[in-house]
Design brief:
Elements lengths: L3 H7 L3 H33 L5 H6 L2 H19 L4 H14 L1 H6 L8 H25 L5 H14 L9 H14 L1
């Protein structure tokens, strides 16, 4: 969709762009439900061999992609009548999902936490690049700034939040709901 949609706009096929866009109202909930199912499977698979606290902490990583993705997608839908903002938030929602993909590429890091932080940094640098591009062109970069703040909040909380009592309580509630 991220490839087809801009092409449709370029070709002035707004009607088709909107029709394809409506498909995302089905696709995004499927993506969310799929990720929740993966989290549940991960938790259940680890439960027999991993203590509760690290098992619950491990759920932070997929959540750190899910919440920014959903937040930015919702902002894109909220601003669908403002094409420039809509476009920027859609691009940012795709960038939010790049972290898990980049994190799975073996870049030679043997330390898991370093690999995670590099994947997060890749996404954030990409958003900074988009923000600076818009700024230097005199365009409204606000959407990328909001996107960067949302992503950074989740990305750079990674070293501290998963083991916190707040996260543990939240994640246990989600796990109970999923089971």
């Amino acid at each position: 969709m991220l490839i087809v949609q801009p092409i449709l706009i370029y070709q002035k096929r707004i009607d088709l762009h909107r029709l394809v866009g409506k498909f995302s109202y089905i696709l995004v909930p499927i993506i969310v439900l799929s990720l929740l199912a993966v989290m549940k499977t991960q938790y259940l698979k680890n439960a027999p061999s991993m203590p509760e606290m690290p098992n619950v902490a491990s759920l932070y990583l997929p959540t750190s992609a899910l919440i920014p993705f959903v937040s930015l997608y919702v902002l894109a839908i909220v601003y669908k009548k403002q094409p420039a903002r809509h476009m920027r938030y859609m691009i940012a929602s795709a960038v939010a999902l790049l972290g898990p993909a980049v994190g799975r590429i073996n870049l030679g890091f043997t330390d898991f936490n370093t690999a995670v932080m590099v994947a997060f940094a890749f996404c954030d640098v990409l958003l900074v690049g988009l923000l600076l591009y818009e700024y230097t062109k005199g365009k409204n970069y606000y959407s990328y700034l909001v996107s960067l703040l949302i992503c950074c909040f989740f990305h750079y909380a990674f070293p501290w939040v998963p083991g916190s009592a707040l996260w543990q309580g939240f994640a246990k509630g989600v796990v109970a709901w999923l089971l």
